[in-house]
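Our preliminary data section would be incomplete without showing what the modeling component actually yields. Below, a chain of 335 amino acids is followed by its predicted structure, encoded as tokens that our downstream tools consume directly.
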Amino acid sequence: MTFHFHKHMFGSAMALVVLAFLMVESAKADEAAPPITVRAEVDKPTIHIGERVRYTIVVDSDASVEVTMPPFGDRLGAFAIKDFGADGPKTLAPNRVRRQQWYLLDTFLLGGYAIPPAKVRYKLPNSMERFLESPALFLTVEKMLATPEAMKDIRDIQDVVDVPSRLWRVTLLVCGIVVVIVVLIVVGVWFARRWRERAALVERRPAHEIAYEQLDRLQAMNLIAAGKIREYYFRLSEIVRYYIQNRFSIYAPDMTTEEFLDAVGRTRVLQDAHSDLVRRFLQHCDLVKFAKYNPQPFEIQEAYLSARRLVDETKQMEAETATNEKVPATVAAQN
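Predicted structure:
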């Protein structure tokens, strides 16, 4: 009887010791948790031609950390973005939140591809803004499987159909088309040469004059009052991009926001403060244009003032304008 009682007491004591050990380890793990972590994942490592893969960026952070997720674009490496969305922030635990951003990707090229790292901007309390990247992910694209479901829409080649011979009419038609094409090419080359000759005599207007006119015209359109906020942001961001291209001779009409910012950064045409201003401005515009973010009135006003401030602080001075007089126009003004 006494033996069993002591055995029971010993087992209870051991259970209490193990429980206390686990609580201490859990507390240590909580203390050691970094203020922010970033990871990326795909729902499948291998896809077939025409199949889509879901790519997700997951950011866990302390509630006091300011987090800026990567802006949405139209491509992610070798993959086209067909859809995207964002979730969060959601509370994981006291003082801990999770943000997620997802993309539906597809491609029609076979092989192995790397999805580039996701770059997340964050700022700790009383600290400078920093970046944290997720590891790159690798994805394999294989041929379509020859299953009945995959082959049901593929039809056999039809038999050759004899067409009545009207060779002379076809020949005349082809010759007439060729003659018209040649005439159009000759006329087009002539007009293009005349246009270049006339453009060479036109003085190049300073980029800031064009930008000021476009900004004033945008304000006069009253798009915000009409509820066309996304159109307003599309036009405002294009004004800034075209101004930078015209002002610093950067040709980037088809680049995504991140590619455009990388091009500006590589050329070092802007000071760090102005480069940061452009980055924040364009990323804010992308949130409104692509992520369906509804800005507050003060944010809309701040975006417009940021665009005007960039032009004010980077415009050509009189000495530069005098040096560039009678230079052929190379970048057309945005209409």
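The chain has three domains: 36-145, 168-201, 207-323. Residues 207-323 form a domain with the Four Helix Bundle (Hemerythrin (Met), subunit A) fold (CATH 1.20.120). Preliminary results of this kind motivate Aim 1 of the renewal.
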